Amino acid sequence: MPTFLQHALIVAAGGALGSVGRHFIGVLATRMGAITFPWGTLAVNIIGSLLIGLLVEAVARVLNESAEARMFIVIGFLGGFTTFSSFSLDAMNMIERGDVLPAIAYVIGSVAIGLGAVWAGLAIGRLVF
């Protein structure tokens, strides 16, 4: 039976990979010209929302509810990959510089599309797995 330390290392490994993935998407978005609107953060949150729905189904159905797989993928990787705290900071920065309407669109779009992406990931996972 895995120990607390082994579980912590599993989560940490997944988190490290997720954080690196988030970083690269942010860099890519910036290089593509996303300077005044946080496209990288939006993309990561939508991708992460889709993946969490899809992967929760995969872990439950294909990996036989492996606690370690769930820790690595959902808590570790997706916890490191998604960026709600960055999302909140981006929205506040937009508001503080006077971009209130784009900030509102960003917040509403992130939440609405994120919820839709989780729903889609769950639905796809239920069909595929």
UniProtKB/TrEMBL annotation:
It holds the Pfam family CRCB. Keywords: Cell inner membrane, Cell membrane, Ion channel, Ion transport, Membrane, Metal-binding, Sodium, Transmembrane, Transmembrane helix, Transport. InterPro entries: FluC. HAMAP family: FluC. The keyword Transmembrane applies. Na(+) binds at residues 79, 82. It catalyses: fluoride(in) = fluoride(out). One of its GO terms (cellular component) is plasma membrane. PANTHER family: FLUORIDE EXPORT PROTEIN 1-RELATED (PTHR28259). The chain crosses the membrane at residues 42-60, 72-91, 103-124. It is found in: Cell membrane. One of its GO terms (biological process) is cellular detoxification of fluoride. Na(+) is not transported, but it plays an essential structural role and its presence is essential for fluoride channel function. The keyword Secreted does not apply. It is a multi-pass membrane protein. Belongs to the fluoride channel Fluc/FEX (TC 1.A.43) family. GO terms for molecular function: fluoride channel activity; metal ion binding. This is Fluoride-specific ion channel FluC. Fluoride-specific ion channel. Important for reducing fluoride concentration in the cell, thus reducing its toxicity. Coiled coil: none annotated. The gene is fluC.
